[in-house]
């Protein structure tokens, strides 16, 4: 089915199931241990052996020798796989540092061997007996040292004459903000079971994008991807770290071949930060020039980041072109090449840290103007995409988000003067930030079966903890007129139709639209069998009413339909995005500088909310991650050895329950006619765009101290 906006009226306009808060149907499985994650799939194939990944002990150089004799002789060892001396293995789709290093090491903890044994403990013990010698070369690991000479990546975006307008502006802000590297820190590490059957390979793994995984594996292993099956029904978090296959998948495939047995590998937690991908550090300079009435006349955002050779940086300017009006603009990205591990997508790549700078700069501008920060944002609301008057916003309600949030949060009680509210040792402050995150859509396929009046949905879409099972079941139930418990959803298997997958907050609207398309096809088949015009029929409670005649769904027998939704080119005329108003109140200890978040509020504008309950969980989770980015999370680089030293959950500090006492999420009742037949947009990344800046602004409001170097740890306030 081709979707050409606007969506117009459709079945979802008077939906009874879609749009209702629905507990996740996989919830009971998750809390009773019956939702198996990749490493727990003991039953899918017999005779599983255990693999242990050996990571390089240097960041750059070559292996001069690897002594395997003792390891090979260790109890239970079946095989040891080391990378071939020739070509690096594992440059696949969108990964630039080989997943399996060898003669050349290109980053710390890059996989250099895999030990396979009868038990996990035996594999681990044998791996410790491998004696590897290296010839270490000098690497470049220090972002600050190379940043200034980083080349521009991509074209700078310019509009009008920024420099002149900035120089002439009545009020000017010129500040620099820095964000550190961050790791995804998902609960379930990367894990894979691999098994060969002749030249056919099956991987039970944990992955966000099944079709990409299948194609990548074909490329990397030099086999026809048609011979690869990937299965990933439950994913314990991904945040972008599982968009692309990683070393666990490649090594499990190679080790299984060598061991002539199925092999399971869980990437050890201390390996994840350096072996897999991370969000790179940024250094962002923002200049804002405005008239005394608050109108921005000059807006510049320059961002410096880094990556391995050939890959792009963390693109923190992504939102800046879209959020605020302003006639004279300059945005540019610069990317240095470093020998650190590869940087790649992490939840709202670019925007998540871009907001940490832009939305604090807006707070600084509001203060310089003596203006309320919400009013400043309202004054600078654009009518069309800045610099592109032909391009409209599909549905934009940012001002409503800010105004409704202000009401709910009690914004009017804010003291415009910082450090004015104190009770005992605690200083109190509130902050606001706007949130913008694009809402892309990708083609998405599904198959639906009807038997005995029940529906089974098959698609390779994934549920990364987001609630996909539930929103797909809701969509199919609505379309076919059956109760929710008459729908079974099966996900994550590459033998099912290719879906949009879970990434870039495109999954919810795209995958449900694909299910909608397949259900339209199934309804037409049912109409042909029972003799009615399906496009003019009402499917409800297991029956169908068409042209004043009633039919029973169960009488249609056993039928199957498959379709893929494709999105028209109309999107080039629209910027399709989601918006939020983020609010936060903090208390800061006047003596120790310790920050406590007291409450957070997000008011979100994301079109139809398919399942308010699971959408709320998405936003809450993202707000927690934003709190981590603002206050605690930081990959610390050892610039001598080229590694992240705090590469486990003991040293990399993520927020815990006690850090987040109260969160509230409100969704505006909007519909986006342009995005998809669902009129819905994603929220999983919107929720991390802005709250960190709201926290930073609240700390400033509490203390009168502006720290621009994230995370905002207490030492920086003393
Ligand atoms: Mo997202 S960073 O595209 O999983």
From TrEMBL:
It comes from the Bacteria. Residues 32-138 form the Aldehyde oxidase/xanthine dehydrogenase a/b hammerhead domain. Coiled coil: none annotated. GO terms for molecular function: iron ion binding; oxidoreductase activity. Pfam families: Ald_Xan_dh_C, MoCoBD_1, MoCoBD_2. Gene3D superfamilies: Aldehyde oxidase/xanthine dehydrogenase, a/b hammerhead (3.90.1170.50), Aldehyde oxidase/xanthine dehydrogenase, molybdopterin binding domain (3.30.365.10). SMART domains: Ald_Xan_dh_C. This is Xanthine dehydrogenase family protein molybdopterin-binding subunit. It comes from Croceicoccus ponticola. The lineage of its organism: Bacteria, Pseudomonadati, Pseudomonadota, Alphaproteobacteria, Sphingomonadales.
């Amino acid at each position: 089915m081709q979707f050409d906006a606007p969506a117009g009226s459709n079945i979802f306009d008077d939906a009874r199931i879609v749009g209702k808060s629905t507990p996740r149907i996989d919830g009971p499985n998750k809390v009773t241990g019956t939702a198996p994650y990749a490493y727990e799939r003991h039953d899918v194939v017999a005779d599983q052996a255990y693999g242990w990944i050996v990571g390089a002990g240097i960041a750059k150089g070559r292996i001069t020798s690897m002594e395997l004799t003792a390891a090979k002789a260790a109890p239970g060892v079946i095989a040891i796989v080391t990378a071939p001396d020739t070509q690096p293995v594992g440059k696949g789709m969108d990964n630039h540092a080989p997943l399996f290093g060898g003669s050349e090491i290109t980053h710390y903890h890059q996989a250099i061997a895999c030990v396979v044994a009868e038990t996990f403990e035996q594999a681990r013990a044998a791996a410790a007996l491998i004696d590897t010698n290296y010839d270490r070369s000098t690497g470049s690991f220090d972002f600050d040292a190379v940043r200034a000479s980083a080349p521009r990546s991509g074209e700078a975006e310019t509009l009008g004459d920024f420099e002149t307008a900035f120089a002439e502006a009545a009020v000017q802000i010129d500040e620099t903000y820095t964000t550190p590297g961050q790791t995804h820190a998902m609960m379930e590490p990367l894990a894979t079971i691999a098994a060969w059957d002749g030249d056919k390979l099956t991987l039970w793994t944990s992955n966000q994008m099944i079709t990409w995984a299948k194609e990548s594996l074909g490329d990397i292993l030099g086999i026809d991807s048609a011979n690869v099956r990937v299965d990933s029904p439950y994913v314990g978090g991904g945040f972008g770290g599982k968009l692309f296959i990683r070393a666990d998948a490649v090594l499990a495939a190679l080790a299984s071949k060598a061991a002539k047995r199925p092999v399971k590998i869980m990437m050890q937690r201390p390996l994840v930060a350096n072996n897999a991908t991370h969000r790179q550090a940024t250094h962002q300079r923002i200049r804002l020039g405005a008239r005394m009435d608050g109108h921005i006349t000059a807006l510049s955002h320059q961002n410096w980041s880094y990556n391995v050779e050939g890959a792009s940086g963390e693109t923190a300017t992504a939102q800046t072109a879209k959020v605020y009006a302003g006639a004279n603009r300059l945005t540019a990205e610069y990317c240095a090449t470093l020998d650190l591990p590869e940087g790649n997508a992490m939840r709202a790549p670019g925007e998540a840290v871009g907001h940490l700078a832009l939305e604090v700069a807006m707070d600084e501008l509001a203060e310089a103007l003596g203006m309320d920060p919400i009013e400043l944002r309202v004054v600078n609301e654009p009518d069309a995409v800045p610099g592109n008057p032909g391009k409209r916003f599909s549905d934009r309600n940012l001002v409503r988000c800010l105004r409704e949030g202000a009401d709910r949060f009690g914004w009017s009680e804010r003291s415009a003067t910082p450090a004015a509210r104190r009770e005992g040792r605690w200083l109190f402050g509130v902050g606001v930030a706007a949130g913008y995150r694009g809402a892309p859509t990708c083609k998405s396929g599904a198959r639906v079966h009807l038997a005995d009046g029940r529906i089974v949905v098959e698609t390779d879409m994934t549920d990364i903890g987001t609630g996909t099972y539930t929103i797909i079941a809701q969509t199919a139930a609505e379309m076919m007129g059956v109760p929710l418990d008459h729908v079974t959803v099966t996900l994550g298997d590459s033998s099912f139709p290719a879906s949009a997958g879970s990434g870039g907050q495109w999954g919810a609207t795209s995958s449900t639209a694909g299910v909608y398309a397949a259900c339209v096809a199934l309804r037409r088949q049912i109409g042909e069998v029972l003799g009615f015009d399906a496009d003019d029929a009402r499917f409800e409670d297991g029956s169908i009413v068409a042209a004043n005649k009633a039919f029973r769904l169960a009488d249609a027998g056993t039928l199957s339909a498959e379709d893929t939704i494709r999105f028209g080119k109309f999107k080039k005329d629209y910027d399709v995005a989601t918006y939020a108003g983020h609010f936060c109140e903090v208390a800061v200890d006047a003596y120790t500088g310790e920050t406590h978040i007291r409450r957070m509020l997000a008011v979100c504008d994301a079109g139809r909310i398919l399942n308010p309950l699971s959408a709320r969980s998405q936003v809450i989770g993202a707000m927690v991650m934003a709190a981590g980015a603002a206050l605690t999370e930081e990959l610390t680089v050892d610039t001598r050895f080229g590694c992240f030293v705090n590469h486990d959950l003991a040293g990399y500090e993520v927020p815990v329950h006690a850090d987040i006492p109260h969160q509230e999420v409100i969704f505006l009742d909007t519909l986006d006619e342009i995005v998809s037949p669902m009129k819905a947009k994603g929220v999983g990344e919107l929720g991390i765009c802005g709250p960190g800046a709201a926290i930073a602004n609240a700390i400033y409001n509490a203390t009168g101290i502006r720290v621009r170097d994230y995370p905002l740890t207490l030492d920086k306030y003393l």
